[in-house]
Structures are given as C-alpha cells and as structure tokens.
Design brief:
Blueprint: E1 3-10, H1 11-19, H2 30-37, E2 42-52, H3 63-77, E3 81-95, E4 107-116, H4 118-131, E5 137-141, H5 148-158, E6 161-163
Parallel strand pairs: 1-2, 1-5, 2-3, 5-6
Antiparallel strand pairs: 3-4
Amino acid sequence: MSKRTIVYIDGFNLHYGLLRQCAPFKWLDLQKFSKRLVSPDNNIVAVKYFTSRVNYDPRNPSAKVHQEIYLRALQKLGSVEIVEGYYQRQDAKMPFRFEPCKSCRPYADVVRIEEKRSDVNLATAMMADFHEDKADSFVIISGDADLIAPIEYIRRTGGRNVFA
C-alpha cells in the first residue's frame, strides 16, 4: 500500500544550502526532486515550498528577477504550492570583530534583512496536515532547528514517519 507523503521545502535553506552553491540546480524542478527523495511506495500528494519574495539587493541586483522567474515556472508546473512569508529590513549596530583603531567607534551601522514567517508557515502547515490526516509521511527539507518541536510532536503523538 502506498504511503501518502507531503514534502515541505524551506526555500531559504534550500537556496543557501544547495542552489546558491551548485549552478546546475538553480532551476530545480521541486516535484521531480521530491520524487527522487522518497521510496517508490510513497505517493507524493503535495509539495509545499515556503519562501519570501526577494527585495532589491544591491549585492545581487538580478536576484529578484531570477526568483520571480523561478516562482512563475513552479506555478506554471502546477505541482508545487508556494507559501509566502516576507523580508524585514532592520537598521542595526554590529560590533567589529577586531577593533579597527583606538580612535574609531567599536561598531558599524548595518542593514539586516531577515526572512519572516516562512518557518512558522511551514510548521503550521505541517501540523495542520497532520491533524487533518492528509499524509502518512512527512518530508522536511530544511536545516532550521526551529522545526524540531513540531517534528518531534508528530513523531511522538501520531506514529507517523517524519524525515528531516
């Protein structure tokens, strides 16, 4: 009997862990990728991709355009659900690793850009799918430790397979 399987992909972690490093994977077909990750007795009922839309980045001016093209391609395939968070810009003061000079201030003014809600969206979707009995197996592609608690909850209370 085939197992209903849902794949949850943390787009930020996937991008910085694989896609950014390996040019051939930049236009990765997430549905095909997911099928290769699981055994043939798993029936993938959904692939959910959690991401935030890139704002303009002066270090990489084409990032926003490339992401837009990729997300449109995923939508056109129709096999991947895209769930969006957002980026938050925050001005901050960060200490220098080494004091630049005796008369210099000990910090630099920086702009921090943080992804918001993608992890929460992923955890919420996974918990909802678990409680609505939408899958027998859950595959999580992320390196985010914030997802450990919901993963352990599903394993402990539901007796379901969770691969992270």
